[in-house]
Design goal:
Elements: E1 4-5, H1 9-19, H2 39-42, H3 54-68, E2 70-71, E3 78-80, E4 83-85, E5 90-91, H4 95-103, E6 107-112, E7 115-120, H5 122-137
Parallel strand pairs: 1-4
Antiparallel strand pairs: 1-2, 3-7, 4-5, 6-7
Helix pairs in contact: 1-3, 3-5
């Protein structure tokens, strides 16, 4: 199963900017050297970041929102390691944020067909609810 979203890259980035006003949006373009379908790639070179920041909260909301727009069917309580946008551009979650989510027990990973997906743990579901409350309160 290929997870596609019926949104352009510019529409995704516009939503990301609405959720997070900082300089580094949590949704980079896929680079040729990236290996988002390989679980081990996401955990290399751990970084010392906190999941308790506006950027991480916005990222969780963005990833889940994009997953809800997935085709052929929306995803719930999970999001893919790669978002294939309308127009042929692919984006991915921010690697440092995913490492932080793993470290804090907010996500786990599994394959949905050939595609790697990050599923929310119970702690991740509570975090997502809190993130939604924080992001949409402002």
């Amino acid at each position: 199963m290929v997870v596609r979203i019926e949104m352009t890259e510019s529409a995704v980035r516009k939503i990301a900017r609405q959720l997070y006003s900082g300089d580094s949006l949590p949704i980079p373009s896929l680079k040729p050297e990236d290996r988002p379908q390989e679980p081990d790639w996401w955990e290399t070179n751990p970084q010392d970041e906190s999941s308790i920041s506006d950027r991480q909260y916005a990222a969780m909301r963005l990833y889940l929102y994009l997953a809800s727009k997935a085709k052929p069917r929306p995803l719930e309580n999970c999001f893919p390691a790669q978002f294939d946008c309308a127009g042929g551009i692919s984006l991915r979650p921010d690697k440092a944020i995913i490492k932080t989510f793993f470290r804090d027990g907010l996500v786990t990973n599994y394959k949905l067909g050939w595609q790697l997906v990050f599923g929310l743990t119970d702690a991740g579901k509570a975090y997502a609810k809190h993130a939604g409350d924080r992001v949409f309160r402002t």
